[in-house]
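Morning F.,

Quick status update on the modeling queue. The single chain you submitted on Monday has been processed. Sequence for confirmation:
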Amino acid sequence: MSAYIHDNAAWSQAKPTISVLIPFLRDDPQALLRRLDTEAAALAGAVELILLDDGTADTDLTTRIQATLDALELPVRLISLVANEGRARGRNRLTTAARGEAYLFLDSDMRPDTPVFLQTWLRLFAQDAPAVAFGGFSLDQAPTDARFAVHRALSGASECLPASQRALTPEKYVYTSNLLVRRDVFAAESFDPGFSGWGWEDVEWAMRVSRRFPVIHIDNPATHMGLDTVEDLARKFDQGAGNFARVVALHPAIVQTYPSYKAARALKRLPALPLARRLMKQAALTTVLPVKARAFALRLYRAAVYADAV
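Structure tokens below.
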């Protein structure tokens, strides 16, 4: 058997409008589940939660999560995979278990910023049934440890933006961290399983979808709790280089307008790029430097990694 299913008592009788789809790998989603469940009475069965454990293979964690699910009022299903499928395939699989007319993709390390987070999504869908809507995210509840300062600086400057600003380039600011997608839209455009590892599968999906359907932005944010150290971010950038190359190949006209692409093209001409990359990473890791300088060095490092793809 490739997957194990666990449903709570509320699952079988629910007739949801929105299915909240939460993938995780070695993370513990229980804090998010309990937060979402505070809205259960107001939702009256209109929202279900579906979790995908993408191959964690931790029986103790699974047992604890199942116990939490059984205590929730919201209808919940847990799908536990024996082997990891990856971000794109995993999210596609989640939709096959969903019964709602819309999917709300929500990362397991997110925390809603308001007590009416799900109600806001439900009200929007009841009124407008948008094809695609992104709610935004913040750092309001995120840890303030010094080791995460560079990630806070990067995310705050480029991702934690109000809806009015995101709407200027709607396809660029679409992440599966807090994303509502109508069922028929996802049936027409699912995530590309050719992406593996970290990054870009949601951005590429948005590029495809925005050609056929309107993408709107609203201010219904959740906090990204899972900040990374510089070392972890650099590792993710390394892992994401192949995915960036895939996006460049699939959507060259769009990607060529991105600052990250332009920087990568410029750095590609450096005669000693491998050495420059090491120096950029070292600068980002140097804690005596100002945080803004370290964040700038890390952005340069990402562009230098992506230079191999352009």
